[in-house]
Design a protein that fits this description.
The complex is a heterodimer. Chain A is an alpha+beta fold. In chain A, 25% of the residues lie in helices and 33% in strands. Chain B is an alpha/beta fold. Classes of the chains: A alpha+beta, B alpha/beta.
């Protein structure tokens, strides 16, 4: 349930970014390698937002696929299923993560 | 109290409403954005929004307009700043800090007790003990550690599932870091949440016990991937279990080829010296090689 802590951080970011404007949607990038459950995050957001200026706002999650680049043959592999960091082309495990670890507030939609 | 609403687009959210004089009888309580609830929009009325005109996003489906404010802020940024501050404090005091994680019952506290017994008189070890509600673990370690700071995480919203950098900052404020060489931070027993939070330690280690199943590295890859060392505990039980050690080690290698692995029984002390050597190596390299471990 660290989603609750994460929502508190998101709320802090939102408050600093929008001043006293009414927040409608907070857009997030969340990589597949993050252990964040979007449904749980949405539920926790209601707990955090209710009774505050952020009440009525919602989180919009953009999932970013996990991609690793092979340090041996430079092939990019998009991971699916088991999160084993291995090159699909040459099977090397010496890879670097290209994407999938994102956890960012990208933008906030406010009412005008 | 807030009310949960389901919108046409399938999203669900809660509104804070003043229900005085508001008729909720009947099922036809529609909640589009053209509703007549007492949402106060006055707070935005006086704001000139020309400066955001270029940022206006797609607001089709809304009666009122919407503006998009670009933010691009990492959600862990605040925690990571606090973690960096902790690390700077450790560095200034010449302390090497290790964040120790595991599932509940894997044997973190038993390993710490054994570790403290071996290091007593050799290295000044401090402990940050992250229990959810009790001082039970701290009581087990008291007297063995040079200093101990108990950090109950149950003060918050139903108890935290992990330590974060601010909690650890509170814990170390009660320690005399200058009088320590090594700080072991016992995290909350949990294979998910602690993996996501940098607490400012130089190294991360975890305890995985042979009673847990060979597939744990595949089920909790984030935890197994972030650690520098894995202590495989309770190996004295191997003769009585179906646990396939080779399969576990292969799974571990698949998600984390670089981790140092130690086969240990915290109960009998078997294999403990290799783990101790690894801890001592963190001290030796402290000033030169211990960088910021993300």
């Amino acid at each position: 349930m660290h989603e609750l802590s994460l929502c508190r951080s998101i709320a802090g970011i939102a408050r600093r970014a929008v001043a006293d404007r009414k927040v409608r949607t907070i857009n997030l990038d969340i990589g597949e390698l993050r252990q964040v459950v979007p449904e749980t995050l949405a539920h926790c957001w209601q707990l955090v937002a209710v009774g505050t200026a952020l009440a009525g706002s919602r989180l919009e999650v953009n999932r970013i696929p996990a991609v690793v680049r092979c340090l041996e043959c430079a092939t990019d592999t998009t991971l699916s299923g088991l999160p084993i960091l291995r090159c699909a082309s040459c099977q090397a495990t010496t890879v670097e993560i290209v994407s999938g670890e994102e956890f960012t507030v990208t933008s906030i939609d406010v009412e005008v | 109290m807030g009310r949960f609403h389901r919108h046409d687009d399938g999203t669900v959210h809660a509104h804070e409403h003043d229900h005085d004089g508001h008729d909720h009888s009947g099922q036809g309580h529609s909640h589009g954005h053209d509703h007549s609830h007492e949402h106060t929009h006055n707070d935005v009325a006086g704001i000139g929004h020309d400066e955001h005109a270029e940022l206006i996003g797609d607001h089709s489906g809304y009666q009122t307009g919407s503006e998009r404010i670009e933010v691009l802020e990492a959600i862990f940024a605040e925690n990571d700043l606090a973690a960096d501050a902790n690390r700077a404090e450790f560095d200034a005091a010449g302390v090497s800090a290790v964040n120790l994680m595991s599932s509940p019952g894997a044997g973190k506290t038993a390993l710490l007790a054994r570790t403290l017994a071996v290091l007593q008189g050799r290295v000044r070890v401090g402990i940050v003990e992250g229990d959810v509600e009790t001082a039970i673990d701290a009581d087990r370690l008291n007297g063995l550690a040079a200093q101990l700071s108990l950090l109950n995480t149950g003060d918050g919203f139903g108890g935290e599932c992990h330590l974060d950098a601010v909690m650890v900052a509170n814990a170390i404020s009660r320690l005399d870091l200058d009088a320590l060489d090594l700080l072991l931070i016992e995290n909350v027993g949990n294979l998910v949440c602690p993996a996501e939070f940098d607490v400012g330690a130089h190294r991360k280690a975890m305890v995985a016990s042979v009673t847990e199943g060979e597939d744990k590295p595949l089920k909790y890859p984030v935890m197994f991937r972030v650690v520098d060392a894995v202590v495989v505990n309770k190996i004295d039980l191997l003769p009585y279990l179906d646990f396939e050690l080779e399969l576990f080690l292969a799974n571990l290698k698949a998600v984390n080829p670089k981790a140092a692995v130690f086969l240990v029984s915290a109960r009998t002390g078997e294999g403990i010296e290799q783990w101790i050597d690894w801890l001592l190596a963190q001290l030796d390299g402290k000033t030169s090689t211990l960088g910021h471990n993300s």
